[in-house]
Amino acid sequence: MADHGENRDGASASVRVLNHRSEDLDTISSLPDVILQQILSLIPTKYAIRTSILSKRWRHVWSETPSLHFDDFYKVDADSIDKTLALYKARKIMTFQLCATSVVNLPYNEWIEFAMSRNVENLFLDFGYLKYEFPDSVYINSSVKQLRIETKFSELIPRCSVSWKSLKKLYLRCCNLSDESFAKILSGCPILESLTLYSCDELMVLDLTKSPNLKILIIHLNIWDSGPTHIVAPHIHCLTLTLKNYQLSCTFVDVSSLTEAKLDICFSELEDMNVDFLQDMVLKILDKLQNVDKLTFGENFLKILSLAEVRGVPFPMFKAKALTLETMISQYVIPGILRLLRNSLELKKLTLHTMDIETDTIPDKDVSNYLCGLNLNHCWIFGNVFHWNVESKHVASFMELMIKITKALEKMVVRLESYLDGRDFEELLEMVPMLSQNNNVSIEFSSISAWR
């Protein structure tokens, strides 16, 4: 068989191997259709169809795969999609994915309605920069359990009543949503459990009061977006909030049921940092997290907390049992970390994950001026903040300091990502058992180093 070319999923490579090794072909061909169809559903549909030329055994296997993926981005072949749907035999579609980022005047409505006619459960639609008007039929569906919509110029404005009776997971990215339209959408999702809003910039007040089953909320706000400034979510258990526009004031009106929260702030070098604004917003958010069991903070969030600590601003007390810190270790985060630990009297598990993030962090030069009066004996400055200058003894000293501050700590998890070279890692690894024994704390330690 001639080579059909490679793709990022490696689908055509798999076809070539099957053709050249008849024993493998026989083995795989002997599998039941349902297994073969599950395998083919993991790759784009156009590559699954290519297997039909292998033999008579494979000719129609693809036509009953539980998933259809049309994701050619800027080259949508309408005739090919129409032919595929005409030959498709499965009565039930588990996943239907359509990515059409720029091509206009194609029968998108017909393709989506085809998927819904087969009781699709997972519907993923990406219209990119295409201005697409969603038909009423999209808003009325009883089979979809997971819906993902990505679009930059299309608006979600339901003209009819929304009825997504089975929908449990909703992901909206770059969707133009007014408060009124989104309230209408929520009213039609009686069993919604998870909501992700990524750069939905027209939504100002996120009121989830009437969504009692909604337990997971994920919000990402980009630099130029506005997005929800007031979050009313009394039933939410798990919250992830990433602010990429720090000038946007985000207020938690009600998160009284929250048990787990992950927060960070991304920063653009095009912006001037308003320390007072950031500090005020972060501390107000912290005030609403006092009773949360599991907390995760990113590097920029910790930098702002360090600034507040240096300024002598009071911090709330926390009842967290588990705390995760996703940050490089430097003098710009340590003051905030130590204050968090001192104010977390019930902390049982502490995780330190040194995320090697080179972008979207607050430049150290913008915070260094505020640290001039810091007591260096307590902040454990390592000299240069870059990870390749940090030695094993510094990391061990910081670990020991954190353990001593946390009186109730039972377990520490340390993941050093791209942090120490091979020699320093081995030295630190030798110190860990002694740290654990001396402080009666279980320590789980690992390192992913660029030198290993």
Automatic annotation (TrEMBL):
PROSITE patterns, alphabetized: FBOX
Residue intervals of the F-box domain: 25-73
SMART domains referenced in this protein's UniProt entry, alphabetically: FBOX (SM00256)
Species, as recorded: Arabidopsis arenosa (Sand rock-cress)
Pfam family, one: F-box
Organism phylogeny: Eukaryota, Viridiplantae, Streptophyta, Embryophyta, Tracheophyta
Name of the protein: F-box domain-containing protein
InterPro entries with a match to the protein in the record: F-box-like_dom_sf (IPR036047), F-box_AtFBL13-like (IPR053781), F-box_dom (IPR001810), F-box_plant (IPR044997), LRR_dom_sf (IPR032675), LRR_FXL15/At3g58940/PEG3-like (IPR055411)
